[in-house]
Design brief:
- With about 250 residues, the protein is an alpha+beta fold.
- About 20% of the residues lie in helices and about 35% in strands.
- The strands form 2 sheets. An 8-stranded mixed beta sheet has the order 1-2-3-4-8-7-6-5, sandwiched between helices.
- The model has no long low-confidence stretch (mean pLDDT about 95).
- The chain binds biotin.
- Biotin binds next to helix 1, strand 4, strand 7 and strand 8.
Length: about 250
Amino acid sequence: MIPYVKNTFLHRKYIGQTLYSCQETDSTNIRLLEQTGAPFVSGDVLTAICQSAGLGRHQRHWKSPEGGLYFSVLFEEIPALEHFYPLVLLLALAVRDTLSDASGYETFLIKWPNDLYYENHKISGILTQSRSQGAYTNAVIGSGINLNTAFADVKGLRNPAISLSEITGRTIPPESFLDEVLNRFDQSYQQWVLGNFTHYLPRLNQFLYGKGHPQQLKLPDREITVIPLEFTASGQLRCDVNGMIREISLGELM
Ligand code: BTN
């Protein structure tokens, strides 16, 4: 059994009120989904200094050496995964705003569905996974952030990557960065519960990557070219696909 350190943060109402930390695990997403190692409940966050089998989208491996920030949030018994898509955007926005505050730069953009970019370099990825148990579904949203890792000399990456320390020239304390992200996500989660997701749309749309310009979007069976236009009130991406306006949901990409 993995020795987790458990901390409670009562200034947060829901997300990350309980934070579990460990030195190493295979994947924070999988530990929360499989409910192994601790009695995890909804809103709990698990973070690891490094992951031995970090997961990325499309069954890819997410390299997770020490120096990055890796964490996942558990949501139990959600009625339907579609209901949940706005939350993925709200976590992306929380990470974006924290990157922006920590660096003093505004140019961090949300590349739908799961990436954050700084000047055409990937700095963070988000992976949503779910598991059904009878009538209910449990879901996790996990985020990997290049905080203090070095990418300048890494060859052969699919997308050029960068870390926050490479941008700022400073080492960023992971604990305080995560604390800021969780404070923001806890606030926006509460607004989402109140039905106020649309309050966040102007900022989400302000920071949409590639708006108005053709982008490649990977579907499970093929890649298509889309022109991102804006996020919608249900957390979909409205885009132009070959001259037709379509709303694409996260579920279509999984
Ligand atoms: C991607 O860009 O493909 C998504 C990467 C998501 C990585 C994070 S790290 C924390 C959480 N645990 C995992 O195994 N994956 C996510």
